[in-house]
Design brief:
It is found in: Cytoplasm. This protein is of the alpha/beta class. It has eleven helices and eight strands. Bound molecules: NADP nicotinamide-adenine-dinucleotide phosphate.
């Protein structure tokens, strides 16, 4: 399949790095022909002479431009193939209004971890997407991480839980490291300990059969140190604080 990218910045580059391991042929078109050629050389893909040339030749289009560029870039193009959009806040309905209501449309929401091909990517489609196309779309998103198919109404929640949460998880790691520094460790050592422990705990939950509660119970011995710390975390409201921050993120996304 020929996959055409319009706009190749940070996120599209991460996706192309995943797709480069597949047998798909990739063509790109950036903000100018000079930029397209430069990026194509860097990523070892082909550059199209224009957006329209790319649209004429690609079997599937992936839009890697910013949401505010959609009107300007899409209006004059004559699409005839399925389109995949990763733009935050651009609904399938709006995408159809800017392209065509008859085309198969796929909306995805990758996250920052696409950089290491470990994105948790949300995916939804309009009713023009066939089972076969859905399989291809998921193969594409699986090439740079894990795909979660969900209803479009849940996209804002997904964006908070997967799109924004890397920042919240990084804040938790930073807080653990700061606590280590407060108690005499160097920042570098404290950060290594915190990062590796978060990584291994997530892997343990993901690969093993324990629920988070099972794991908590295993670490908390009766009358021990961990249960004392855990009670203190909940006294200061960790669960409430996390849920409140996710609610705030969702509310903000709905206002965009
Ligand atoms: N970054 C994330 O973590 C993330 C997460 C989820 C979703 N997304 C979505 O991914 C999309 C891209 O975000 P990004 O972070 O990758 O942004 P980005 O790095 O700024 O990439 C946008 C690209 O669009 C290019 N561009 C500008 N005008 C263009 C035009 N007229 N025709 C073609 N290309 C044009 C820019 O080229 P120049 O550099 O030459 O100006 C740039 O390479 C957005 O819709 C965003 O909502 C991003």
């Amino acid at each position: 399949m020929i996959i055409g990218f319009i706009g190749v910045g940070k996120m599209a580059t991460a996706i192309i790095n995943g797709l480069n391991k597949s047998s798909h042929r990739i063509i790109i078109s950036g903000s100018s022909l000079a930029r397209s050629r430069q990026i194509a050389e860097e990523l070892e893909v082909e550059a199209a002479a224009s957006h329209q040339e790319l649209v004429e030749n690609a079997d599937l289009i992936i839009l890697g431009i910013k949401p505010q560029m959609f009107d300007k870039v899409l209006t004059d193009l004559n699409f005839h193939q399925p389109i995949m959009s990763m733009a935050a806040g651009v609904t399938l309905e709006r995408l159809a209004s800017l392209t065509s209501a008859d085309l198969p449309l796929i909306r995805i929401m990758p996250n920052l971890n696409a950089q290491i091909l470990k994105s948790t990517t949300g995916l939804c489609t309009n009713d023009k997407v066939s089972e076969d196309l859905l399989v291809i779309a998921k193969e594409i998103t699986d090439s740079f991480g894990t795909t979660v198919e969900l209803a479009e109404k849940d996209f804002d929640t997904f964006t908070a839980l997967a799109g924004s949460s890397p920042a919240y998880i990084a804040l938790f790691i930073e807080a653990l490291a700061k606590a280590g520094v407060k108690n005499g460790l160097s920042k570098q050592v404290a950060l290594t300990i915190a990062t590796q422990t978060v990584l291994a705990t997530a892997e343990n939950l993901s690969l093993g059969s324990d629920s988070p509660h099972d794991l908590i119970d295993k670490v908390c011995s009766p009358g021990g140190t961990t249960i004392a710390g855990l009670m203190d975390l909940e006294r200061t409201g960790l669960t409430h604080s996390v849920a409140s921050s996710i609610d705030t993120t969702i509310a903000k996304a709905k206002k965009l």
